[in-house]
Design a protein that fits this description.
heterodimer, A: alpha/beta, 6-stranded mixed beta sheet, 4-stranded antiparallel beta sheet, 10 helices, B: alpha/beta, 7-stranded mixed beta sheet, 3-stranded antiparallel beta sheet, 29% helix
Chain lengths: 264, 285
């Protein structure tokens, strides 16, 4: 389970000069990054800085205008994501990847029970034994601290924090190697946020998960990520180790961003 | 009949029939695949079998013998009116006997009498998309079909077991056709699902409002979806038909009085009558 012994030195995902234009408008421009197994990269920046566009391109939900994204598959071969067929991309998205949305309603089926939500990926990859699917769902709900007696409840009956945790369980059930997170703690109160961050951090260390987390909350970046990328107006303006970027920002904009945090 | 308005044979004009036949050929070539077609307005409301009527009109020839059933019965409103519609517009012979018919249009049931080579069974379909209530976006459902991405269908069955302890879907029970497309068998009871498998007759499905046609060529493999530990089971009845005593047919519950009196009778009236006829002739001997 813990992949620390067999971690491949080569990066898991590499983006080279990725640009995305919406007509004449810039989504993101000339972004390059790589992410290794077990590594958490935070993408920070203000609203409209192109963070979510970048995430959509990296997760193949939007085709880039220019540049390419390669991913090292489980068989060790790095492949250009946009040359994959749609079936292959979808398979990747629901097995080797996870995607945690800010709005849990985008990531969950609200009309389907918690167990069904978690089991969906398993059934999609061919599990056809009800008892096995259910016990796997129970285990994952347990790991995200959702009581087993809630397994047949629909997410509509869950609180915001529970929905986010359910979303994470749903993504983790196929043991992904890379998880994309778009503001996973957005709209949650501080104590619930803390619990969620704790959970994500423990999954990252237990399962050797790599994650790309888009957030405007620098505290989230500091708590979770190893490296931080600062974006502004669609471009990357600063990258580096999280502590380095947040404690000793070089760019004026990053300095502004860091200084605008309320100091406790 | 001279004073009656003159329709083309079987109501639809020949160009429309050609268009529908082209869709039918495509549907037969790709079993279970929903083929879009330019559904016409028919002199009946949507939901009354406009899709089935258009398919029947397109496959009907002068020598065909037509049978129309609604919930298995030949004498219900929908069945009677569609049968009369074709008597009037096509002048074809009609029957209630399953084995004599060459074209059978049906709503909700497959006749109990085993269908044979050369027969065509036309279904009236309200909602052709098996994934509809799981995925509301049409673009997405088509993509799921194209990519054979059917995990979602099992989510529905999972939910059934989670809520009811068993697969509680009793009609429109999803099937996999020829190992490829998942298909909604229209709102037939799951009792009839096994009859679709390896059936000798050609089965055509028409959805007028949704503008889709799909088909099962004769002798196509049709498998009802299920879980290993919760296998598909057709509905079983503990009662038998009060009229003919059949134990192997699909039964309708009929309320007979205001004091809780009820009886179960065959939903397939032709099957019931035939059995009754055999019994009386045996008794006479």
């Amino acid at each position: 389970m813990n992949g620390t012994g067999s971690i491949d030195e080569r990066p898991l995902l590499v983006a080279e000069s990725v640009s995305k234009y919406y007509g004449a408008r810039v989504g993101c421009r000339d972004v390059s990054l790589d992410i290794h197994e077990g590594e958490v990269v935070a993408v920070v920046g203000e609203s409209g800085s192109g963070k979510s566009t970048l995430l959509s391109v990296l997760s193949t939900q939007l085709p880039p205008t220019a540049g390419c994204v390669t991913y090292r598959m489980r068989d060790g071969v790095a492949r250009d994501l946009f040359t994959l067929g749609e079936a292959e991309r979808r398979f990747l998205l629901r097995t080797d990847w996870g995607f945690v949305h800010q709005d849990a309603r985008l990531g969950l089926r609200m009309g389907v029970s918690a167990g069904g939500n978690v089991g969906e990926r398993l059934m999609a990859v061919g599990w056809r034994n009800y008892a096995a699917i259910r016990s796997e769902a129970e285990q994952w709900l347990g790991r995200v601290e959702i009581d087993n007696d809630r397994i047949d409840d629909k997410p509509t009956a869950f609180s915001g924090g529970m929905r986010q945790r359910l979303q994470i369980a749903k993504n983790m059930v196929t043991r992904p190697r890379l998880v994309f997170m778009d503001e996973p703690t957005g709209g949650l109160d501080v104590s619930v946020q803390a619990r969620l961050l704790d959970l994500i951090r423990s999954f990252v260390s237990t399962y050797g998960l790599a994650a790309i987390i888009v957030t405007h909350d620098l505290a989230v970046a500091r708590l979770l990520s190893h490296r931080t990328i600062v974006m502004r107006h669609g471009s990357v303006i600063e990258t580096g180790l999280t502590d380095q970027v947040l404690d000793d920002p070089r760019e004026p904009y990053t300095q502004l961003l860091v200084s605008s945090i309320l100091q406790g | 009949m001279t004073s009656a308005p003159t329709y083309n044979f079987a109501y639809l004009d020949e160009q429309t029939k050609r268009m529908i036949r082209r869709a039918l050929l495509k549907a037969v070539a790709i079993p279970g695949y929903q083929v879009p077609f330019a559904s016409r307005e028919m002199p009946m409301p949507f939901g009354w079998g406009t899709g089935g009527v258009q398919v029947t009109a397109s496959v009907l020839g002068k020598d065909d013998v037509l049978k129309v059933i609604d919930q298995g019965a030949d004498d219900t409103t929908n069945a009677v009116s569609i049968r009369r519609f074709f008597e009037k517009t096509a002048g074809v012979e009609t029957t209630t006997r399953t084995q004599d018919a060459t074209v059978i249009q049906t709503r909700h049931r497959i006749p109990e009498t085993k269908l044979s080579d050369g027969q065509i069974l036309v279904y009236q379909v309200p909602i052709p998309e098996p994934l509809r209530f799981l995925e509301p976006r049409e673009v997405e459902t088509r993509r799921l079909h194209a990519l054979e991405d059917y995990g979602l269908m099992h989510v529905k069955l999972y939910e059934d077991i989670a809520c009811h302890g068993h697969i509680a879907t009793t009609y429109a029970y999803p099937v996999k056709v020829d190992g490829r497309y998942v298909m909604d068998p229209s709102p037939t009871p799951k009792f009839d699902n096994p009859k679709m498998d390896n059936c000798a007759a050609l089965q055509l499905f028409g959805a007028g409002r949704e503008k889709r046609i799909y088909a099962l060529p004769p002798y196509t493999r049709v498998v009802s979806l299920d879980f290993e530990d919760h296998p598909f089971e057709p509905t079983r009845f503990t009662d038998k038909c009060s009229i003919c005593g059949a134990e192997d047919s699909y039964l309708d519950e009929v309320i007979t009085d205001d004091h809780g009196g009820r009886m179960f009778v065959c939903s397939d009236t032709d099957y019931c009558e035939r059995r009754l006829g055999e019994q009386t002739s045996e008794a006479a001997q």
